[in-house]
Structure formats: C-alpha cells, structure tokens
C-alpha cells in the first residue's frame, strides 16, 4: 500500500463534504450532514478520501469540575481500506497536532468493539457510558467513554465517572 496523503483541515474550511458523506455512508451506513468540527484530518489514497477523524473543542463538567478538552468523533475508514492502519495514522497525527495546543486531553465514545483499537493508541476507559444532551433531555449512550492525555501532567483518571458528560450531540 502506498502512503496516504494526510490532510489537516481547520475550522471546516475547504471540507470535501460530498466525499466525506460518501465515506460516512460506506463506513457507518448513513450520515446526511457533517458534524461540526474545529479540526479534521483526512487520508487520501489515489486522490480519494478513505479515512477521517474530527475533533471539537468542548467543556466537560465532570465530578463538579470543568475540564476543557477535545471531543473526538467520526473516526472511520472506508470498508475497502480497513485494517491497513489508516485510522491509526490519522489518530496519531491528530494527537501530534493537538499536543501543540493548550488542551490536556481528548475524549471519545465508542462501541465495545472499538475499545481495543483505542487502547492500542493509548486511550483509557473512563466511564462505561456517555451522556449527551438532545433538545432538553439527557440521553445515555451505553457505549464506553475513553480518554487520552495530550499533556503528561494530566491524569485522565480525573475524568472517571459513572456516565461521562459529552454534552451536545449535533
């Protein structure tokens, strides 16, 4: 496999929306709109978008303490390119780039099947579930919440709780 062309995208400028929606449909089975993101990384092979990761800067209220960090979402690779390390390369590149910023951690919510993948990348399970706000209601997602420290002085165990408060779901 040739090395992918990894492209960082800031503040959703120059987002290849149609290509990303096609990738999300192939990887997840559906997506009609892009979730907002402060930063994205896409991987292209032969000019085609084959993998993606997005982050959004958020405040998290955990155990009565506010923490500002990155919410990681829409990590995916198209079915024909999976298990070739593309998502790993993108997440590691995101960690590298985000490590230059002022926030101490990233957090994400994934299915049980994704836990080993994220553990290999250094993530720690901080909660067995996540909570999102949809309209005026809190919705519990029974998938594990995981976090990764971007700052060696930050212990992600400070984020451990019964249901991690991811906040708004777009």
Question: What this model shows, in words?
Answer:
With 170 residues, the chain is α+β, with helices and mostly antiparallel strands. Helix content is 18%, strand content 41%. The protein contains 3 helices and 10 strands. The strands form 2 sheets. Strands 1-2-3-4-5-9-6 form a 7-stranded mixed sheet. The protein has a 3-stranded mixed sheet with strand order 8-7-10, with no helix packed on it. The longest helix is centred in the middle third of the chain and has 13 residues, at 86-98. The mean pLDDT is 93.
Shape: globular
Largest sheet report: 7 strands, mixed
Low-pLDDT residue intervals, each spanning 5 or more residues: none
Number of strands: 10
Q: Kindly provide the radius of gyration, computed on alpha-carbon positions and rounded to a whole number of angstroms.
A: 16 Å
Helix residue percentage = 10-25%
What structural category characterises the helix and strand content? alpha+beta
SSE pattern = EHEEEHEHEEEEE
Distance between the termini: 35 Å
Strand arrangement within the widest β-sheet reads 1-2-3-4-5-9-6
Total helical segments: 3
Features:
7-stranded mixed β-sheet, about 40% strand, 3-stranded mixed β-sheet, alpha+beta, about 20% helix, 3 helices, about 170 residues
């Amino acid at each position: 496999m040739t090395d992918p062309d990894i492209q960082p995208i800031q503040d959703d400028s120059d987002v290849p929306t149609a290509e990303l929606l096609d990738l999300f449909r192939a990887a997840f089975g559906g997506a009609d709109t892009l979730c907002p993101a402060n930063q994205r990384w896409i991987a292209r092979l032969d000019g085609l978008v084959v993998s993606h990761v997005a982050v959004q800067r958020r405040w998290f209220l955990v155990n009565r303490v506010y923490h500002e960090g990155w919410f990681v979402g829409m990590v995916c690779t198209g079915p024909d390119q999976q298990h070739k390390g593309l998502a790993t390369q993108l997440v590691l590149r995101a960690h590298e780039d985000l490590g230059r910023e002022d926030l101490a951690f990233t957090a994400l919510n994934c299915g049980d099947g994704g836990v080993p993948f994220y553990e290999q990348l250094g993530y720690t399970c901080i909660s067995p579930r996540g909570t999102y706000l949809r309209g005026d209601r809190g919705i519990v997602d029974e998938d594990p919440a995981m976090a990764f420290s971007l700052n060696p002085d930050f212990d992600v165990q400070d984020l451990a709780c019964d249901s991690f408060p991811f906040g708004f779901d777009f």
